[in-house]
Specification:
By secondary structure, this protein is an alpha+beta fold. The protein has four helices and three strands, in the order αββαβαα. Strands 2-1-3 form a three-stranded antiparallel β-sheet, with no helix packed on it.
Length: 124
């Protein structure tokens, strides 16, 4: 859930460098690296504005900025569902109380004779 909220609120900027109509580099958040064609044209003495074959494209996907929701933004059915769901979910983790045993305070009867030996009943 936290990952979904984080990805929906981040603004993504994608920058592409095109050389002769083909994509040479794609980058997120920073400028794409150029292919070096502009440097080669300027070193050869040619006018880079006339023979410019490279192009940079950039587009931004803006994230959601308004995330403030109040309880009153939900209609009655949604409020009932959220309340019932949260109550049943939190009830899963509540400690279970065991009912008290009524014979816990009384001691067990004293064994005067070993009944298994008297009746000669043995577990095999």
């Amino acid at each position: 859930m936290a990952l979904t909220v984080m990805l929906s609120t981040i603004s993504w900027t994608v920058d592409k460098h095109l050389c002769m109509g083909r994509v040479m580099d794609v980058s997120l958040f920073v400028e794409a690296e150029d292919c070096g064609m502009a440097d080669a044209l300027s070193n050869s003495g040619q006018d880079s504005m006339m023979n410019h074959c490279c192009d940079d494209e950039s587009f931004t996907l803006s994230g959601q900025e308004d995330l403030t929701l109040t309880w009153l933004d939900f209609d009655l059915d949604q409020q009932v569902f959220l309340f019932a769901f949260s109550h049943s979910y939190l009830d899963l983790y509540s400690p279970q109380v065991e009912p008290p045993a009524p014979h816990e305070e009384y001691p067990p009867p004293l064994l005067v004779k070993d009944i298994h030996i008297l009746d000669q009943v043995f577990l095999i």
